[in-house]
Design a protein that fits this description.
heterodimer, A: 340 residues, 14 helices, B: 7-stranded mixed β-sheet
Chain lengths: 340, 525
Amino acid sequence: MSTKKALFKYILSRLTLLPIMLWIISSLVFILLRIAPGDPVDAILGTRANEFARESLRIKLGLDKPLINQYIEYLNQLIHGNLGISLNTQEPVKVIISKALPASLELAIFSILIASLVGYLIGFLGAVKPESKIDFSGRIFGIATYALPPFWAAMLIQIIFAVFLGLLPIGGRLPPGAIPPPPITGFLLLDSILDKNVEIIFSSIQHLILPSVTLGILLSGIFSRALRLNLEEVLKKDYIEAAKSRGINNSRVLVKHALPNTLLPILTITGLTVSSLVGGALLIEITFSWPGIALGLQEAINQRDYPVVQGIVVVISSLVVMISVCIDIAIAYIDPRVSY
Amino acid sequence: MLKLNCIRNILKVSSILLILLQLSCSQYKKRENIIVASAGKIESLDPAQANTLRTLQILSALGDTLYKINKEGNLSPSLAKDLPKVSKNGLLIDIPLKENISFHDGSIFNAEAMAFSLNRFRKIGTLNYLLNDKIEDIEVKGKFLLRIKLKKPSSSLASLLTSVNLTPVSPDSYSNYKDSFNNKKFVGTGPYFLESFNSSQQIIKPFKNYWGEKPLNKGINFINYSNSSTLFGAIKTKEVDVLISNSIDDLQRLTLNNMAKKDQLKSGEGDPIEIGYITFKSNKLPLENKVVRKALSYTIDRELISQQVSFGTREPLRSIVPPQLHKKEFKPWPKYNPNTARSLLKTEGYCGTEILSIPLTFRSNVPADKLLALTWRDQIKRDLSDCLEITLNGIESTTVYKQLSEGAFEAVILDWTGAYPDPEAYLTPLLSCNELNNNSCLKGEAVFSGSFWGDKKLQELLEKSEEIDGENRLNNLIKVEKLAAQGGAYLPIWLVNPKAWSLKDISQPEFSKDGLIILKNLERD
């Protein structure tokens, strides 16, 4: 079977498995939420409401029905693309996700860009000049950023750059009082560019800098270490020696021969990181009051808002699967040796 | 040379970027509205659903209530024209309403509108049991006269009518929301109208046709940040004008207080309305033993805990009702006295070889609870290790609330804020019991509070207090609290004052008696 056909078959199988996987995930979330202690009625009414008030609300929210009926109703809604209504706000879950997800994705995209830029540059320099000062510093940087607790790093960066130096805003996506542009894509920066609102463009960039740089630097350690290790290994291969012995200069050997051969694991790591960031970076979102999906999920869990938790988990899972399929396709195109 | 050029270019680009960023930043410094920040999102602006301090805060500016508690702590008419007139049998309450008041949509406020709002709350309000337990029916007796028929006499109803949850809404604007919440809009009679709403920012502007004193500012922007550090940083960097104290960590409160002392900020403080306490489950040994509970009430060094946990910002408390509500100094719970505790425990066979072990549960997501638990445990270890030991167990708050009435916790740290400023709003939710077996409560509020403790005499006094008024009622409620202290099922720890800090060019925040900032009095110098 040709590689293309095998790849097509692989993608098809992954996409066929997607509904089954989503069914398993959504069922698990449904069951786990109901098993977990805590009650949405308590979260809404408080603990002091009398039995009548509790029962009335339970009926209103549909929580009085047998679990199996609730489950069938939930699946039926899901099949029809309806993620339900928030128990707490009575707002469609779709709307809640459509507001929060772009915020997380915007943060994720910028963080990945920063992480790639910083991480791969440090890793590359370290691999090119092994055991040099640059390599040594890069390794320490890699370990340090990997080991730093995100909440601590975020708070420190916030205190230094926002509170003490006052260079950048402390949190949120826009300054207090600023009117956001009409939501077209949900990505604030993109929407403000489309709205041609220069003030909001700069404000949104300002607000994006601290959280994305913090997250980016924290992630860059993994990237730098991954590139350095892979590049170092590739540089020891016979074909690199052969290229050098043919008189090809070092930079050409690096860029044309060594670097492309390290792309495979790098792409995989980048893909995995992107997948993990799709669900938001909770600690960063909390520290910088970034109204993303992870913050929304945390609040929904605290309030036992079942439909919101279920909806967010299903959407994130779908996105993660799709991203991993895309990465598989990219890997197959980059490396013809990969078979499925 | 190439390197130098590269560095120069980078510097140039960075400088341009920084200048542009700073320029865009400076434009927002010329703000007209006052920016008020606090923690927690507002998910709904419907008074029938409001249950967070932040929501109540904004609703108090957008709407008015029938009555307010004045500075002296007495009921004073707001939308009502006069104080409620109670019939001889105590079952009918007539409330005359002010005339010439209009809602933000231009419709007229009258008895029909008030009845609509009260009935709507009774039907869909998340706290509707507060009214439904007391009210039989609501009648419109005249265009500006409302009659409330009670199920039984209730002297606390008038205080209940000060609750922000009972803010009237315009029947015209809420005609499609008789049975459902209107989360993103609010049309009331208050000094401000809602200009824009989203869950992270709400903008309110002065209502030109407001019947009362007009706001001193040109509008308020409410914003929320998700954590204490960001809120703290926001006022330090002057990103916000006013900071409300809910969810501000104690250390940061202290720093803000110190900044206020050094004249770097202004600060305002309201009457304490939140109490922190420990509930003991009294229907199972060892805490079923009244003497053991009494001994425990002597074991807590509130002054030390207040210092260690909150740097003195939380006032030690020896009652379960905030003192100002009794209008007199009253501390029925005993002072810290380890020797008395030891001798009481000895009489029950503890100390020496038999050490009483109490598992103490705290809400793991409430930092002050954890610190309180740790401090009390260590203080016991220091003073009473021969008799008593405390073991700690942290559980997330939603789970604690769910399992409280199931009797899952021997001892648990909790807090309570009354729905309205009245002793009854603290005593009934903790002590009321509908079905008693000796001192064990089988059904009622005492079950929901996790103590399972009740007392026949206390219950009678609590019910009697609904039938009497004024000084007699307060004295009656004091007797209730004395009995509660003797029962020892609760251990009050501290009081939390609502507080707010403002920048120097903003007037000092003032609080109403229900612990909310009076937003219309905020003024930019």
